Amino acid sequence: MTDSENPYYVAYQREKMARLEVELLLEDSTRQLYEKNVLLQQQIDLIRQQQQSLIQQEKLASLGTVAAGVAHEVNNPLAYILSNVRSLTCYAEDLLVMIDAADNQPIDQVKLQFIKEDLSELSSDTCQGLMRIKDIVNHLLFFARTDSSGKSAVQLADAIEFTIKIFRPMFGNIVIKREISAVPMILFNAGELNQVLMNIIVNACQACDAVSERSSEIVVCLTQADAKICLTVTDNGCGMDEYTLGRMFDAFYTTKPVGTGTGVGMSIVLQILHQHGCTIDVKSELNKGTEVMIFFPVDPSGYQIDM
């Protein structure tokens, strides 16, 4: 009996061929899967880059809305710094004249005493003004930066105060109330936390600006409940109807006039919060106001700063 006539040999060959076909199919599938994984990773990287670009665009758009106010904040200390420098220049000239004339005639003691007393105050005021300008510039630079660093322990109360300071020019006559409790630190990307707080607080300000028949108020409350830290921002602004509330996290959806909003702010906020294990809940009623509640997980290190 030849091999071709042996049923066992025929079955063996048939199985061998089938196994080779499966191996070739598996190899081809593995290669396709690898190529698709590479393509998927490229798309993920592209989406992340686009997200960072959108975040930066939203930051710059928001900074543009407060540019005039910030310029006013800088101009105030600049004005008295320039005035003080002019006075200091005059005093220096007077002192030089007194020194040159000291050998020939008595120094004007009354004028000298006035200069001595005023020099200290002028110097102190000038330093305070310069520190104020430095503080404003540092806040702007920190907020406008592209922050791609990882998570770190962040004091939420400090971040809230930072956001309120940088956007203070937007508030106008809006009353900002703070109810801040001592809470543990959270684990968050500092730059992205600024982005979240900016959108929530700026939206509250703009909602209040849309209402003129009553005094405007925003309440920022920070509390802890078990393993969660709750940030609540409440305003008595224009509020939202059910349709707008249901779409507020949709990308590029906005009710603001052209040129005043990109429509991506809250969708970015939602993505950032989800990436950090946070949740957000929004309640709103048209013509009555809005309440935004964000729940942050506590930093496992449990480090706490007393308020």
Automatic annotation (TrEMBL):
The enzyme's E.C. designation: 2.7.13.3
Catalysed conversion reaction: ATP + protein L-histidine = ADP + protein N-phospho-L-histidine
Origin superkingdom: Bacteria
EC class of the enzyme, as a word: transferase
Domain Histidine kinase: residue ranges: 69-300
GO MF assignments: phosphorelay sensor kinase activity
Keywords: Phosphoprotein
Cross-referenced InterPro entries: HATPase_C_sf, HATPase_dom, His_kinase_dom, HisK_dim/P_dom, HisK_dim/P_sf, Sig_transdc_His_kin-like_C
Name used for this protein in its record: histidine kinase
Organism of origin: Shewanella decolorationis
Top-level taxonomy: Bacteria, Pseudomonadati, Pseudomonadota, Gammaproteobacteria, Alteromonadales
